[in-house]
Specification:
The protein has helices spanning about 15-25, 65-70, 85-95; strands at about 5-10, 30-35, 40-45, 50-55, 75-80, 105, 110-115, 125-130. It is an alpha+beta fold. The longest helix has 11 residues, at about 15-25. The structure holds zinc ion (ZN).
Length: about 130
Amino acid sequence: MKKIDHIAIAVQNLDEAEAAYKDVLDLKWHGREEVATQKVLTSIFEVGESRVELIQPTAADSPIAVFLEKKGGGLHHICFEVDDIETEMARLKEEGARLLNETPTAGVGGSKVAFLHPKSCGGVLVEIVEKP
Ligand code: ZN
């Protein structure tokens, strides 16, 4: 695990949340990107070497829509960058962590990502990412 790549926050209204992070927190805005595999629209902010991603569902069956229904928004996951996602996934499995996907899926900007069950990580969903 090299560093915190990003922290993702689930929001009901991307326009409103984006304005708050831009105007109130004054974070440097990077832009928006749709992640089709997760059925979300993300708004990305840069904070030093890390990012904050606001995520809004684009479909009713998006995992984020389910999360918003249950919890009404807030911290959704923390993402750690790794050098080699396949090796890291194998290591985590060996350590007894519960992975939510067997193989990496496509993330923002051509990255490869995988998720760990919150039960394996103190109640928080954890994502790992390998950058292209
Ligand atoms: Zn993420």
